[in-house]
Write a structure and sequence with these properties.
By secondary structure, this protein is α+β, with helices and mostly antiparallel strands. The protein is built from 7 helices and 11 strands. It is 23% helix and 21% strand. The N and C termini lie far apart (50 Å). The protein binds a DNA duplex through loops.
Length: 285
DNA sequence: CTTGGGACCTGGCTGC
DNA sequence: TGCAGCCAGGTCCCAA
């Protein structure tokens, strides 16, 4: 499940491809090309130079020399793979290649996606795709005050809000659970009920778990793999995510799993207690 | 504004 | 052993 640290790792791994030209494109599975229609996609991407790779939330953006942008979203099981010599990656066992871009140096950039939920766009204006995203949690302007502003008045479980891409970009199920554990906040706490102290702790924790995830090159749970076909290591550092019934690193009690807005949520009910909602202030008459 | 459900997908897992 | 059915969760969309 590529989230911000995984997509950031992919982006960094793809930097060597910047400056290369797409000499041919093969859409193996038309389903993943969301825009434009497949024939147009294939003709429009051909002979374009890839200028630079960037990341916005969980989206990977490649600016092209004609002003358009090639955008990928991995959703649950997507990955980008670079192959230079040797057999085509599409022959590797357990890899589901949906799109292959052949580059001018003979290498290939392939989009693989087991569950076919991933998406690829080729658009003149990238804002069409990434325009509604919330702030980047690792940018300097994402301060504790900014986070407090996002949480204020939102009567939504904090876990759900952390995963809302229009509120904050890039956080998904795994890193939301990790950030809430680190800041000792129960996932069902309403966002508007968090104290100033808790918001400050959460802000710290969000940045810490994301940076740690990037440093470990992402978490290889399920199918996430780096473009060079090596796994990330962040899953070994998780304290609660995907650790059902394993001991809490703080208190030793078993990690539990509940559902918050339909999403499996791992946490420690002892270290992340649910306190009563703050009394709602009555408006002066 | 918020919640809930379904839809999209497939392979790994569970249970009979 | 085989097979049906459940489950994972990012995003969108519709209904209440």
């Amino acid at each position: 499940m590529p989230e911000l640290p995984e997509v950031e790792t992919i982006k960094r791994d793809l930097q060597p491809l910047a400056g290369h030209i797409v000499v041919d494109a093969t859409v193996v599975d038309p389903l993943i090309v969301f825009y434009p229609p497949v024939e147009e996609f294939q003709s429009q991407i051909k002979d374009r130079r890839m200028l630079r790779f960037s990341r916005r939330g969980k989206y990977l953006v490649c600016d092209l020399d004609d002003g358009k942008a090639l955008i990928f979203h991995m959703r649950m099981t997507g990955s980008l793979l670079v192959s230079r010599d040797g057999p085509d990656v599409s022959y590797a066992k357990g890899i589901w290649i949906r799109l292959v871009l052949c580059l001018d140096d003979g290498s290939r950039l392939s989009f693989a996606d087991r569950r076919r939920l991933g998406r690829v766009w080729l658009v003149p204006d990238k804002q069409q795709v990434i325009g509604k995203l919330g702030p980047e949690p690792l940018e300097p302007d994402f301060t504790a005050d900014v986070l407090a502003g996002i949480l204020a008045k939102r009567r939504v479980p904090i876990k759900a809000l952390l995963c809302d891409q229009t509120a904050i970009a890039g956080i998904g199920n795994m890193y939301a659970d990790e950030a809430l554990f680190e800041s000792r906040i129960h996932p069902l706490t309403l966002a508007c009920d968090l104290s100033r102290k808790e918001v400050a702790r959460l802000h710290q924790a969000i940045q810490h778990v994301l940076r740690a995830g990037i440093a470990a090159k992402g978490a290889s749970v399920d199918t996430y793999i780096r473009p060079d076909n090596t796994p990330g290591q962040a899953q070994f550092e998780f304290k609660v995510a995907h650790r059902l019934r394993k001991p809490c690193p703080r208190c030793g009690r078993p990690i539990e799993r509940i559902f918050v807005r339909g999403r499996g949520t791992y946490f420690c009910s002892h270290d992340q207690p649910l306190r009563k909602h703050a009394p709602r202030k009555k408006k002066p008459a």
